[in-house]
């Protein structure tokens, strides 16, 4: 494989390879290059409170309560039998939603592949929606949640963190 990459790099004739071969070799090169990059997995216990608030927009001590309030289970299992703690999975989703970033940008925060980050985000979102769908479906019939409350919450969210 390395010989093919070296040949491609030295090849002056752009027509020696088709678009498909160039794209394939480029993907192989990137995957070979990224194999050595191993990041530590995020450990919430080692994050200081300010860092946690900046990353997830929630205070560190509130994360377990938020997971419980959203009915996130203590462990999330994917179809391909990977598992991750519920609070950790929620943090991955919160980080993904808190700041627009590509999945590959999140790899160094969490120490897992961008594919796995995507799968976790989708699974956590599905769990939250499935376990809270009745509340969401009947949201307009709740006396405690009305238009003025939504406007109040929107203003609080809009306000920058201090």
Automatic annotation (TrEMBL):
Name assigned to this protein: Uncharacterized protein
Question: What is the phylogenetic placement of the source species in the record?
Answer: Eukaryota, Metazoa, Ecdysozoa, Arthropoda, Hexapoda
Q: Which organism is it from?
A: Gryllus longicercus
Domain of life according to the entry: Eukaryota
């Amino acid at each position: 494989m390395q010989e093919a990459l070296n040949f491609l790099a030295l090849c002056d004739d752009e027509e020696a390879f088709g678009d498909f071969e160039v794209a394939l070799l480029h993907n192989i090169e990137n995957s070979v290059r990224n194999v050595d990059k191993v990041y530590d997995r995020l450990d919430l216990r080692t994050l200081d409170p300010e860092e946690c608030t900046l990353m997830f927009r929630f205070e560190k001590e509130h994360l377990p309560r938020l997971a419980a309030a959203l009915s996130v289970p203590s462990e999330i299992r994917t179809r391909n039998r990977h598992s991750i703690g519920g609070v950790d999975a929620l943090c991955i989703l919160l980080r993904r939603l808190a700041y627009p970033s590509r999945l590959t940008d999140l790899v160094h925060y969490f120490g897992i592949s961008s594919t796995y980050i995507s799968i976790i985000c989708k699974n956590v979102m599905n769990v939250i929606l499935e376990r809270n769908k009745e509340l969401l479906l009947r949201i307009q019939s709740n006396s405690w949640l009305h238009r003025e409350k939504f406007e109040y919450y929107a203003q609080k969210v809009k306000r920058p963190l201090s």
